[in-house]
Each structure stands twice: as C-alpha cells, then as structure tokens.
Write the structure tokens for this entry.
Amino acid sequence: MIQVIIKRAEHIGFCSGVDRAIALSEDVLKKTQPLYVTGDLVHNAVVMDDLSKKGLKAIDLPDLPENSTVMIQAHGASPELMQELRIRGNELVDGTCPIVKKSFDICQKCSQSSYQLIVLGQSKHPEMMALKGIVKDALILNDLDDLKRNINENHRLNQTNIALCAQTTKPLKEFSEFSAYLTTQLKQFQHLIVYNTICDATIHREVEIKSLASHNDCVIVVGGVKSSNTRKLYDIAKARNINSHLVHSLSDLEEIKRNIFQSETCVIASGTSTPMTQVEAVENYITSEM
Ligand code: SF4
C-alpha cells in the first residue's frame, strides 16, 4: 500500500478580498437576477461556474444590457469604466477588495504630490488596468528588465522624484530587487519614496511556501489558470523543489500521480482565489488513489 503524508498549507483557500467579493455577489443574487460582471469576478473557473449557476453572468462590456446590475471585480475598475456603466443606467455593486482600494489611494496620492509613479506590475492585469485609469501617467513596469530599458530610454525618469509601488500580488523578493536597483540609478537631486503595496495575504503564502517546498518531497499548488498569485506560489515552490506542480483541475493530477506517490510527504497549497472545495477535492483524489 502507498503511504504519502498529505499536509495542508496554513494559509489556504480564499483571502479576505476574494471572500468578500463572492459573499457580496451571492448576497445580491438572492435579490437581483441576473447580476452581470465584466470579466471574471475572481480568477478561478470553479468559483465562476458556481456563481454562474446562481445567476452571475460574465459578459464583455459591449454586450452588457443597459439598466442592469453590475458587479465590479475584486481587482477594481477604472473610473472611466465605472462612469460608462453608470451612463448606461447600470447599478454598480463594488466588489473591489479594500486592500486594492488602499493601494490605489496610495498611488493616487503619490502622483498628486508630483512624483512620477512607477508600479511594479503586469500591465495587462485587471488591477493594473484599473490603476491606469486612476493615475493616467503611472508607469507600470513588468520586471527589472523593463525598468532598465525605461531608465535608458525615458528621460523623465532621470529628472524627477519617483514614488514606487507594486501590484498587490507581486512577489516581495522581486519588489525588493526592483527597488534596490532603482535606488542605485538615482541622481543626486532625486528622491525615491517606496511604498510596499503588496498584500499581506500573498506575502504570508509566499513565506510559507518557501519553507514547505524546502522541507517536503512534493508540492501541489491548486488554483485558476489566470490567477497570478497561484502562478507566483508555484514559481517560488518550483525554484526550491523540482517536484512542485500547478494543478488547475483534477485531470492534472493524473499526469503527476507517480511524482506524488513516490514522495513521503506532499504539501497542498493554494492561490487566494481557490475555494476550499477545490483543495479538498485534490486531497480526496490523492487519498482515494492510495
Ligand atoms: S490577495 Fe490581497 S489584495 Fe488581492 S483580493 Fe486578496 S486580500 Fe485583496
């Protein structure tokens, strides 16, 4: 008989922001049907399927009917999008995570105090697209290479004070390296203010996965295909433990069965938009195959 000790990460399942957005939408759905959302409310297909059965409709903006009720994603939305929705007569339910909102406020204050705002983030991520609408001249840079290129090509960066923030789900290590490099590039008269706007919920998971990946034989990170923090946890785990796997659905487990069952200990972790039902389904699958 195969014996694998299954361990669960301490910080697992929904974070407070995702939990809030889902609870809010479920609450509205009890009274108002249908409820629309432009894009994913959260980046997890299991959650989206479940909400769609309850009446949530994910729809592209051009197809959105007028005078309907629309939920704003946990990642937030730009003022332009909110305005357009209101002009169409839609009623808005704001599911923006309070921590994302706080980060937007910090970014806005930085730019109002005439600092050039640089944000370490993925420019196509909904949180960054919303921020771009709030702080029009925010410079959103994907990584250190992007920063280096901009320092060489964008002369404004050599002439102004700079404020640095981060997308709430960026890895802390990447932000520290980015910030340290930027410090070395400052001219004598330039000031740099650094605000760490990375969410604690993701930092706790990051710290935990480093230790778990180093002290266990196998790591499974459960989460949605589009979830950037799930991908980040997987990347951190993989850098420390080659036997780390990203699992989007139970069918992914088939391919890695051997890796799991050749291990003495297997850790299960998750992104912040992964429901506990999905984590439990993975655990049940493994134990049922032992
Ligand atoms: S990860 Fe943090 S910022 Fe993002 S939704 Fe969750 S609590 Fe909010």
